[in-house]
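Deliverable D5.2: sample structural annotation.
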Amino acid sequence: MTKIYLGIKNENIPGTILNRANMGGVTGLEFLKKIFFITDGIMLAQVREISGVDGTTLQNWVKRGWVLNPINKTYNIDMLARILIINMMRDTVQLSRISFLLRFINGEVGNKDDDIIPESKLYDYICTISDRLTDEHSDQNIDINEIIEECIQDYSERLPGDRARLVAALEIIITAFYTSMIKHHIDGLLKNIENNNYKKTNVKKVLNSSNDCLTDTSKLKILPELSSSNERKE
């Protein structure tokens, strides 16, 4: 049983650098179908624009067997979905472990016979679960597995045990995705502190200003030292 604090939201479509609002609010399979509305395959440059992953990295993933070789230099809907799934986890999970996880779900890349789910559908589940977690339960700790089970009710396993494999994998992917979001949130907070020029002298002044700080913590406030160009006008 995994529980997670979900007070942080992602404005981008999972695994992409595209703002969801700018894409009409779509996500998951609806987003993928929008990309592939008039074509069955997209070029490397388009994958790069969607995912933010540079071409060299993508080609390296292909060479290592993590992503299927493009067909006639194009990537289909399941190839893109796989790339986005890798991308949403790679900040917090080693690529070799991500590769292991994807093999756990769908066996060897390019072999559909051992797949338990199309990767475009897997991506759709991930996005649906992500939406459910943030939209309905953003202010409390919840059990991810309960939401996963609710979101994959339409899944039909080919062989006994497929559903359990899918649930286990989704728990890892969702947890990794939110860990990545938390990491980016922390980076943003640190950047804000750096940009506001917080200095140790401010802390020392507050700590030494009055003995009341030892008994009344409400008086302990650390304020950013504003730059001369942004001085507060009295």
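Annotation notes: The longest strand covers residues 3-5. The first helix runs from residue 28 to 35.
The annotation will be released with the project's public dataset once the embargo ends.
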